[in-house]
């Protein structure tokens, strides 16, 4: 991705000093950054610091550069606006559409995605007014991170700490993740593609207990499903993540239902899918489970035969979701995932096409699993992925490759395009 135009809004909180580190991350990544501090922010970090680090003039006055109509120009030219720290006051002013300084007027003129990174005392963050303002902004498709938990000003600790600059930077770059190239040849962001939509995503690997200690599981890390949840949230959707075992944290602003087994995932998914616009089944669900679960740990004994474990088939959650859709909302879009290997009887795509026909979902995201020619695992646990997206209606397969964040963006963009083409 080439350098983009980023506006960094800085609120008037003690965490403003950390925004200087965030600014450095943006500039070192090749982006052009215009810093707009509030008047209160300049009492913590002065304009000369922002000018020295950004290499650009800094102002917060709407009456500066009037001949260029500054507040309109900056908002229109920005590919992304990041506000860090976002104080309770700034969140309130943004939620209510106030425009009494250069930052708030620029926010009203924004054409691209907007990201707020809150920082304030715990009581201010938890106050009903602040939570209502955050909910309002998120409902408009604005990305609002949850604050970190830790030491605050003085002796206090709790939720309200500014997220680390590296985490804010990662969230900001996710908003600019390319899913498609626009008419000007530049990658288009995800912002707003799923505004007002409800999306349910399953992620992670289910675990089927053998006894209180052991289980049958798989090698899924949940990274791709979590990346999908983050991409859908960045696109403005209300996201519910049905999470089995995950090796990575859940994204901010995503509702989570924690499950363990395939049966638990089926119940949670069917409940969450009711009324959802999109269901994406990215979890690695165990096909089989032990027919009985030992009440105590299975002992290894020299005087007894080795245990024999009988497996029974788990329910097919994807088929069940499709069946409920057929009986209910026909406009619901359902996306399945297939981790396949080829053999002498067929290729990965041969098996995937057969699975798509059996399952009846709209799209099937297919990746080849197992070691490559060098003996390195291709998918499970890795940060990169390479998939082919098949469509039940026979549309041309869509390839996507890169980081799992890149793949998630491609899937979300295709989902958004399909939803837009569906009749109201």
Q: Overview of this structure, please?
A:
The chain has helices at residues 16-28, 47-54, 70-77, 88-95, 102-108, 122-126, 128-139, 165-175, 223-234, 262-273, 317-327, 348-359, 404-421, and strands at 5-10, 32-37, 80-86, 114-118, 143-144, 148-151, 157-161, 198-203, 208-209, 215-216, 238-243, 255-258, 278-281, 288-290, 311-313, 333-340, 363-368, 384-391, 398-403. It is α/β, with parallel strands linked by helices. The protein folds into two domains: 5-175, Flavin prenyltransferase-like (Rossmann fold, 3-Layer(aba) Sandwich), CATH 3.40.50; 198-421, Rossmann fold, CATH 3.40.50. A hairpin with a 5-residue loop joins strand 6 and strand 7 (157-161). The chain is elongated, with a radius of gyration of 24 Å. Residues 178-187 and 372-378 have low confidence and may be disordered.
Outline the secondary-structure elements.
Elements: E1 5-10, H1 16-28, E2 32-37, H2 47-54, H3 70-77, E3 80-86, H4 88-95, H5 102-108, E4 114-118, H6 122-126, H7 128-139, E5 143-144, E6 148-151, E7 157-161, H8 165-175, E8 198-203, E9 208-209, E10 215-216, H9 223-234, E11 238-243, E12 255-258, H10 262-273, E13 278-281, E14 288-290, E15 311-313, H11 317-327, E16 333-340, H12 348-359, E17 363-368, E18 384-391, E19 398-403, H13 404-421
Parallel strand pairs: 1-2, 1-3, 3-4, 4-5, 8-11, 8-13, 11-12, 13-16, 16-17
Antiparallel strand pairs: 6-7, 9-10, 14-15, 17-18, 18-19
Helix pairs in contact: 1-2, 1-8, 3-5, 4-7, 9-13, 10-11
